[in-house]
C-alpha cells in the first residue's frame, strides 16, 4: 500500500485531480470525473470513447430522456443508508426531483479510485466533490435549457427536476432529449463553482426516506448470503485451533461420506498465508455442508498460542504499560516528567477492556466463480481496495483478474473491512473447479471474527500544592488492527521508536488543554499473535476514551471540582485545540458548546434513590474529522446485587451540516445502544487461544428489556459535515461509569462493568 493510496483513501484527492465532463451517451446525459491526461483531448460524445480503457471516466450520475437520475455509489451499504445521503448531496446541487432519483452500488473498478467505507469517512470525504459534481451538472443543464428556450442563461434556475425561466420551464428529461452537451470543467473551474448556501438547500438537512428501504422491506435487496450461481456447490470451512500457525496432520471423512450430498474436502493452501490450517468441506446443499463439517474429523498440530488466555493478554498489557522503555510517544506536550518530579501529590489508575465481537446479523460469506480467467467474488465488503489484492495474492493472479460484486451487508461494524472470509471461498472454488458458495455458521463466524483486542491503559496525574492539575500521562497497550491488515497506514511515533496504529490511538490526542501531557502507545504482541485484532465500531476510541473520560472524572474528584465545570475549564480552544478548516473549525470551543447544552438539559433532573448522572465527552472519529459529542447517563444501581440499569442517555452532537437527518438519527441511536451493550454486557474472553462465547446463548449483547430512553439533540450548524457512524459509541461507557461513582463512590475500571465486581467493591 503506497502513501498515495492512503491519501486517496482519507482525503479523496483522486477526484480533485480530475476534470469533470458532461456529455451524451446512448441518449442519456452522463456526468463523470475523468483523468486529466485523457480529458484534455477526448469528449464524452462517442460511446466507444466512454468505454475506452484509456479514458475510463468515473461516471457519478446520469439522466435519461425521462428525467430519471441514477447516481452511482462507490460506498458499502450496511444499514446506514449511505447511498441516500450521498445522492441527496448530488441531487440538491443539481436541482433534481427527488422522486426520480435512484442509486446503484458499483462493483470494483480502478476508475472508482480507492474504495473503502469505514472510519465514518463517507460523507466527510465525498461531500465536496459530489456537491461540485451536482453544481457542474446544474450549470450544464441550465446552459442547454437556455439555448432551447432562447433566453439568457443568467436568468434561469434549476429546481425540482426542471430549468425555469420566468413563467416557462423545461424538464431535465426534455433538456436531455433536445439539448447538446459536450462540456468540460477544469479542476480550477470545479473549485470555483458556486455551491448552494444552506438557506437554498431543499434536500440536504431536510427529512426524507432512504432510497433503499423498499428493497429491504419487500425482499428484493440482495445480500451476500442471498447470491446463487448456476452449478455452484456449497462449502463450509473447518477452522483450526489457533488463528495462526496450526497445521492439518490428518483428515478422516469416513463419517462425512454418510452425509447426503457430501462431495469431499480440501486442505486449503493459501499463498498469502492469511488462512493457515484450514479445511473446506463441500456438499450439494448448505445443510449437507454443515452436517458434513460436523462429521469430519480433523487432527492438527496446533499453533503456539493454543494455551493463551484472556488473562495472559491482560497481564502482558499490564507489564507493557509499566515498562517505560516500551512503545512510542503519540502525544508529548510540555514536560510531564518534570511536573511529576515537582508534584505535591499524584494519582494513578489502570483501566482495562476485554475481548468483544462484532456479531453482525449476517454471518460472513462469499460466493465465487471463475469465467474466462476473471474471478468474480460476490460478497458484502467495506474495504475493497484492501481486500481485492489479498484475494489476488491468494489466487496468485494479477489484481485486474478480480472483480468484487458489491452486495448489501447484513451488518458491517468494521468486521467487513478486510474481507478475509472471501479467501477460503476463492481457494475452494479454485480447488474444485466450480462456483462455490461459502457461508460461515454463527460459531465459525465468531471464531473467525476480528475481535476488539483486550486493552490495558495506565494513567497518572500530578498536582501542585494548591491541588491544581499540573500534568497527565496516558500509556496504553492493545492489539492493533492496522498493524496486521494495513501497515502502510501507520505513521512514525513522535520519538521515531515505532510506527503507531492511528485507529488504535485516536482519542488519546484529546481536545483538553493540559500544559504537561504525555501519551505513549504500545502494541501488545501477545494479542497480535493470538487473534487478528479488528476494527470494531469506533475502533480505539471505544476503549481509549473509556479510560480518558473516566480518569478526567477521577482528577475532578481529586480537585473537588464539578466534573462538567472542570472539563469546560480545559476546553479553551487555545493553540492546537483551536481546530482548523474545514474539518474542525472552532475546535474545543464546539466541544465546550455541546457540553454546556448538555449541562442545561440535565441540571434539573430529579433523581430517585440510588440514581445518578455521569457525563463524558468525545470528539470521534479522529482529530482530522471530529464529531463533537457530549453524553449524560442517568443510571440506577441496585445495592444488594450491584445490578446497573441505564435509565436514560442524553446526547448532544455537533457534526456540522446533517446531510440526511433520518439516517443521522438512526446512526447515533444505534451507536449509543452499542456503546451501552459494550459497557455492560459484551465480552468473549480468550480461552485456549480462541474466543469462548460463540453464539447468543453465552454472548449477551443488550436486550430489548434493558433499552434506555434516548434523548438526542443535533446542534444546528453550517460547518463542514463530518461522520456519525461510530462517534456515538465512544462516550457511553465512561458516562455510565462516572454515574456509578456518583451513586456508590466506587470507581469501576474494567469493561464490561460486572455487577458482581461492583457489589464486591
Topology of this protein?
Elements (H helix, E strand, L loop, with lengths): L2 H9 L1 H4 L1 E8 L2 E8 H4 L7 H4 L7 E6 L5 E5 L8 H13 L6 E5 L16 H28 L7 E3 L2 E4 L2 E4 H7 L3 E4 L1 H6 L20 H6 L14 E6 L8 E6 L9 E6 L11 E5 L2 H10 L1 E5 L8 H13 L5 E6 L2 H7 L2 E9 L11 E7 L2 E6 L4 H12 L6 E5 L15 H11 L3 E4 L2 H6 L7 E9 L5 E10 L2 H5 L31 E7 L1 H6 L9 H19 L4 H8 L17 H15 L8 E8 L2 E2 L2 E2 L1 E10 L6 E11 L6 H20 L5 E2 L2 E2 L17 E6 L17 H13 L5 E2 L3 H6 L1
Parallel strand pairs: 4-5, 10-20, 16-32, 18-19, 22-23, 28-31
Antiparallel strand pairs: 1-2, 1-9, 2-3, 3-4, 6-7, 7-8, 10-13, 11-14, 12-13, 15-23, 16-21, 17-18, 17-20, 21-22, 24-27, 25-26, 27-28, 29-30
Helix pairs in contact: 5-6, 6-7, 13-14, 18-22, 21-22
Describe what this molecule looks like in 3D.
The chain is α+β, with helices and mostly antiparallel strands. Strands 12-13-10-20-17-18-19 form a seven-stranded mixed sheet. It has a six-stranded mixed sheet with strand order 5-4-3-2-1-9. A hairpin with a 2-residue loop joins strand 29 (686-687) and strand 30 (690-691). Helix 18 (540-558) runs parallel beside helix 22 (732-744) and helix 21 (661-680) crosses helix 22 (732-744). The radius of gyration is 27 Å and the shape is globular. The chain starts with a helix and ends with a helix.
In short:
This protein has about 750 residues and is an alpha+beta fold.
Task: List the strand order in the largest sheet.
Answer: 12-13-10-20-17-18-19
Number of strands: 32
Range of helix content = 25-40%
What gap, in angstroms, lies between the N and C termini? 49 Å
Amino acid at each position: 500500500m503506497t502513501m498515495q493510496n492512503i491519501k486517496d483513501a482519507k482525503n479523496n484527492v483522486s477526484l480533485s485531480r480530475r476534470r469533470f465532463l458532461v456529455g451524451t451517451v446512448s441518449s442519456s446525459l452522463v456526468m463523470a470525473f475523468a483523468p486529466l491526461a485523457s480529458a484534455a483531448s477526448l469528449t464524452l460524445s462517442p460511446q466507444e470513447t466512454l468505454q475506452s480503457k484509456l479514458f475510463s471516466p468515473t461516471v457519478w450520475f446520469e439522466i435519461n430522456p425521462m428525467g430519471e437520475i441514477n447516481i452511482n455509489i462507490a460506498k458499502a451499504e450496511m444499514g446506514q443508508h449511505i447511498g441516500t445521503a450521498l445522492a441527496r448531496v448530488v441531487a440538491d446541487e443539481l436541482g433534481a426531483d427527488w422522486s426520480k432519483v435512484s442509486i446503484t452500488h458499483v462493483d470494483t473498478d480502478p476508475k472508482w479510485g480507492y474504495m473503502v467505507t469505514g472510519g465514518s469517512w463517507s460523507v466527510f470525504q465525498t461531500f465536496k466533490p459530489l456537491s461540485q459534481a451536482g453544481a457542474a451538472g446544474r450549470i450544464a443543464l441550465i446552459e442547454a435549457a437556455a439555448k432551447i428556450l432562447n433566453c439568457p442563461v443568467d436568468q434561469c434556475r434549476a429546481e425540482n427536476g426542471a430549468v425555469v425561466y420566468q413563467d416557462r420551464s423545461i424538464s431535465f428529461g426534455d433538456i436531455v432529449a433536445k439539448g447538446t452537451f459536450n462540456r468540460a470543467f477544469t479542476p480550477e473551474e470545479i473549485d470555483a463553482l458556486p455551491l448552494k448556501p444552506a438557506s437554498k438547500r431543499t434536500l440536504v438537512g431536510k427529512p426524507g426516506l432512504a432510497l433503499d428501504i423498499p428493497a429491504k422491506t419487500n425482499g428484493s435487496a440482495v445480500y451476500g448470503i442471498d447470491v446463487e450461481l448456476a452449478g455452484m456447490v456449497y462449502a463450509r470451512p473447518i477452522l483450526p485451533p489457533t488463528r495462526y500457525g496450526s497445521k492439518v496432520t490428518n483428515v478422516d471423512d469416513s463419517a462425512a461420506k454418510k452425509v447426503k450430498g457430501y462431495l469431499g474436502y480440501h486442505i486449503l493452501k493459501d499463498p498469502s498465508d492469511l488462512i493457515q490450517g484450514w479445511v473446506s468441506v463441500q456438499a450439494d446443499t448448505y445443510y449437507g455442508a454443515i452436517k458434513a463439517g460436523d462429521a469430519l474429523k480433523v487432527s492438527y498440530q496446533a499453533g503456539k498460542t493454543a494455551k493463551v488466555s484472556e488473562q495472559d493478554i491482560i497481564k502482558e498489557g499490564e507489564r507493557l504499560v509499566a515498562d517505560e522503555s516500551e512503545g512510542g510517544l503519540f502525544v508529548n506536550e510540555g514536560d510531564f516528567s518534570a511536573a511529576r518530579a515537582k508534584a505535591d501529590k499524584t494519582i494513578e489508575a489502570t483501566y482495562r477492556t476485554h475481548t468483544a465481537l462484532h456479531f453482525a446479523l449476517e454471518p460472513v460469506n462469499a460466493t465465487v466463480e471463475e469465467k474466462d480467467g476473471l474471478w468474480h467474488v460476490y460478497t458484502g465488503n467495506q474495504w475493497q481496495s484492501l481486500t481485492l489484492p489479498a484475494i489476488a495474492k491468494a489466487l496468485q493472479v494479477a489484481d485486474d483478474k478480480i472483480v468484487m460484486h458489491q452486495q448489501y451487508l447484513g451488518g458491517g461494524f468494521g468486521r467487513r473491512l478486510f474481507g478475509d472470509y472471501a479467501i477460503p471461498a476463492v481457494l475452494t472454488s479454485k480447488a474444485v473447479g466450480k462456483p462455490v458458495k461459502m457461508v460461515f455458521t454463527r460459531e465459525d463466524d465468531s471464531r473467525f471474527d476480528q475481535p476488539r483486542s483486550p486493552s490495558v491503559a495506565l494513567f497518572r496525574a500530578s498536582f501542585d500544592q494548591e491541588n491544581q492539575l499540573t500534568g497527565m500521562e496516558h500509556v496504553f497497550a492493545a492489539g492493533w488492527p492496522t498493524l496486521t491488515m494495513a501497515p502502510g497506514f501507520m505513521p512514525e511515533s513522535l520519538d521515531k521508536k515505532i510506527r503507531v496504529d492511528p485507529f488504535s490511538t485516536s482519542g488519546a490526542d484529546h481536545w483538553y488543554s493540559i500544559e504537561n501531557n504525555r501519551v505513549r502507545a504500545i502494541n501488545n504482541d501477545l494479542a497480535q499473535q493470538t487473534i487478528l485484532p479488528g476494527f470494531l465500531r469506533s475502533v480505539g476510541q471505544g476503549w481509549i476514551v473509556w479510560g480518558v473520560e473516566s480518569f478526567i472524572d477521577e482528577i475532578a474528584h481529586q480537585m473537588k471540582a464539578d466534573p462538567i465545570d472542570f472539563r469546560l475549564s480545559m476546553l479553551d480552544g487555545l493553540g492546537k485545540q483551536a481546530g482548523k478548516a474545514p474539518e474542525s473549525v472552532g475546535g474545543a470551543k464546539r466541544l465546550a458548546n455541546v457540553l454546556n447544552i448538555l449541562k442545561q438539559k440535565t441540571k434539573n433532573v430529579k433523581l430517585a434513590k440510588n440514581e445518578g448522572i455521569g457525563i463524558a465527552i468525545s470528539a470521534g472519529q479522529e482529530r482530522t474529522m471530529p464529531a463533537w459529542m457530549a453524553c449524560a447517563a442517568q443510571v440506577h444501581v441496585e445495592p444488594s446485587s450491584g445490578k446497573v440499569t441505564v435509565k436514560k442517555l442524553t446526547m448532544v452532537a455537533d457534526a456540522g451540516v446533517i446531510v440526511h437527518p433520518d439516517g443521522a438519527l438512526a446512526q447515533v441511536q444505534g451507536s449509543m445502544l452499542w456503546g451501552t451493550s459494550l459497557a455492560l454486557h459484551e465480552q468473549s474472553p480468550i480461552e485456549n487461544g480462541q474466543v469462548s462465547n460463540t453464539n447468543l446463548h453465552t454472548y449477551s449483547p443488550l436486550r430489548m428489556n434493558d433499552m434506555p430512553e434516548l434523548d438526542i439533540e443535533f446542534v444546528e450548524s453550517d460547518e463542514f459535515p463530518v461522520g456519525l457512524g461510530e462517534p456515538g459509541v465512544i462516550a457511553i461507557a465512561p458516562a455510565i461509569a462516572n454515574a456509578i461513582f456518583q451513586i456508590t463512590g466506587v470507581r469501576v475500571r474494567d469493561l464490561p462493568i460486572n455487577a458482581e465486581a461492583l457489589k464486591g467493591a
